[in-house]
Amino acid sequence: MLKSGINQCWSTPIYKTQITLDQCEELVQEILLSTNIMKPQAEYDSGSLTDKIPLLKDLAIEKYSEFFKEVFSIDLNDMSYEFSSWLTGSQKGYSMNIHNHSGAQFAAVFYVLSDDIDKGGELVSYDPRANANRGYFGKTAEMFKPIEYAPKTGDVIIMPGYVYHLVKTYHSNLRLAVPVDIFIKQKKSS
Ligand SMILES: [Fe+2]
Fold this sequence. Notes:
The chain is an alpha+beta fold. The chain has a single domain, classed as Jelly Rolls. About 20% of the residues lie in helices and about 25% in strands. The chain is globular. The protein starts with 5 loop residues before the first helix and ends with a strand.
């Protein structure tokens, strides 16, 4: 495989990693202290959660570093960047229409509390390759299927910001999911 230029982008990396249950517990406490879970934070204070919760910022750096190293063999330390993060809707009935994270090169979601299974809330990510030749007979359909993922507490998903995705309706009482977008500005000057 030639690992350069567009060849790296074609596979559209959608990555899953984890934080520990102890880290989740601490983040839940911090989120309850610094947000109003009855009203999604994005609606009144978009983007500042990593500034309010140092542990969230540390974990965002750690997990994005892991992602860049594993997927692109790039050291996040060589870049200057900013985060934008907020709390999504956490109550029963929450869903999000299809969208992408415009302007952010990559988007992560930290599922800090997602204990109930089979209660909806799946993340569905769609193939962004509008020009992909998918064939006429469906024999390669698997390669172009959306990825549907039912998150559990501690899961972290990272994907390119251009990937369109939606969140299916959530049917249980409380879930805390925190997106952290990364805006990479430039290579640090050495
Ligand atoms: Fe999103």
